[in-house]
Request: fold
Amino acid sequence: MSSQPLRPAAAVRRDARKKVTGEARYAVDRTPPGCLHACPVPATVARGRVTAVHTEEILRHPGVHTVLTHENAPRLGEADDPTLALLQDDRVPHRGWFVALVVADTPENARAAADALRIDYAPDDHDVQLDPAHPRLYTPEEANGGHPAVRERGDFDAAFAASAVRLDATYTMSALHNHPMEPHAATAWWDDGELTVYDSSQGATMVRDVLAALFRLSPERITVDSSYVGGGFGSKGTPRPPVVLAAMAARHTGSPVRLALPRNQLAAVVGHRAPTVQRVRIGASDDGVIGALAHEVVTQTSTVKEFVEQAAVPARTMYTSPHSRTSHRVVALDVPTPSWMRAPGEASGMYALETAMDELAEAAGVDPVELRLRNEPDVEPDSGKPFSSRGLAACLKEGARRFGWEGRDPRPGVRREGDVLSGTGVASATYPFLLSPSKASAHAAPDGTHVVRVDATDIGTGARTVLAQIAAEALGAPLESVRVELGSSRLPDAPVAGGSSGTASWGWAVHKACTALRNTLAARSGPLPPEGVTAEADTEEEAGRTSPYARHAFGAHFAEVHVDGGTGEVRVSRLLAVYAVGRVLNPRTARSQFIGGMTMGLGMALTEHSTMDSVFGDYSERDLASYHVPSCADVRGIEAHWLEEHDPHLNPMGSKGIGEIGIVGTAAAVVNAVHHAVGLRLRDLPLTPDRLLPMLTRRPPGLGRGAQT
Reply:
């Protein structure tokens, strides 16, 4: 593909003022006349059936209009996603599954009535604990993303047995939950058989198409608006219960209905990162060159829908491994359905792989940065394809230089000042280049202004700004002359904001439409007609082509930590990362994305976890008071840098995705730094004080009391 490269510009976010002044309107900011309010009722048993719903009592409560149950709710069409088959039968597949919906005149009355609603159950025995020896474990056909569940190359067992240096370690992590600033919400109403919804979603086009199937309508009779979305991190990547329930209630009552989930219900109904048990085995030569690599993942899904976290997939890409085994096994439990969470597969899988690489470096007596450089593959190990670009080595070298890695004392547990031990760690990161078909249109008006239309969704990433930059560059027009309309299914169809593919997918369509418009204008003479000129584009053909290249973004993360030997508390004093992500289109918004991902990785390493209550069958941490996301005070210094990487095999902009790679290597870098600080290895995330302190109190005499700093 040939095009003039975009000139990076730190353009100010176009929606910044609207967001800080309250002018930006989110899903629950829409209150049509006569709007009612709905509150769902979650099941209080871990498995079983509903035997009675005592609606007659609730209908006498103040302001209550109706109570929807499986007995009177509108019947839905066949759902490709079974988590949306709501109020269709009496089954309770897990605790928190919605079994009723109260609709009232105010949010307060709806909540009070929902809390008071009595429901009788016939509970069944439940099974909610992930066990790597579970008798119902099975090997699925695919892991998330269409990846084969199992891949083998060479003879791993023989190569591992013959290796001079061998590592065999198991790494675990609990479930993690998406907690966007804006909880999931929707407002819906019907008018003459047509449905309009305002939905907190990462993709209005997908929501429209799913609603069309559920309510047996043509997509043209549905309008979905997701103009402003307060974060999603994957949990809004597919339609969720609020939009379906709001539409059902609006149809049943004949009035507009608004539904906003309370945060304590999110853990059960909007997806989460599944817990994993990951065994990593690496066999290497004396100098640390890998000959055998196995990454075997055990995880869980629900009985409602199969979702398999593809945590072993990154090991197929990262390092030279002539003999390889990567596999996924899963068990269906009576738990909420897992789903996408920022960098699914890569975040959890690279935590295990990059921690194992740190352990291998120590066993082989090789510097951790050098070990990774020695295992750089010439081609992608799994596919044999050449890389379109692979900047990992450059990221590691530049990151080491900026971080001051040279001269690091490799001995663990020797940097100490009083009770505080200090250490540094490194980890690599990768994320695939993904692309989906998209449509867009570009319009030129006689007054010299331009309007670009595409059903992209800005979930806080700065899509409005970057798409305007892409359009202005392709048009050869000033940035201020371009206006972008997005976030509505009435606009040209576009894929979801997910998989770090949004800008690549939407941007290509915008670039194609604007290039066509520019060529049309160049061929004209005289003034434009009063209605202006429009060009449309569809990248289905381009996105459908199979690339001869393996296309990935890469990065290197470095961390410095201080561990209090008396309390087990970990403080991260510095995070630094360098990325190779093709052309960075807007340095201002890119840096924000990188830093946001790194902060989430910090939470993954030190604070975030969910405990499954085996008796009640649900997650104990269901709000931000108990599920601890990191804040600004949790890291003193955080730096994100990137390389100037030219890759002509991606899209006309030369850009790779940046939304997710920031989280991928951060957790392992922090974990490796903690090991370097204390000289002990904890392989279970997160590294909370209650887990670290018992290990510190059992430290062998003298460990960690060497060199002083």
Notes: Confidence is low (pLDDT under 50) at residues 1-6, 701-709. Residues 42 and 97 are 5 Å apart (CA to CA). DSSP finds 17 helices and 30 strands in the chain. The two ends are 54 Å apart (CA to CA).
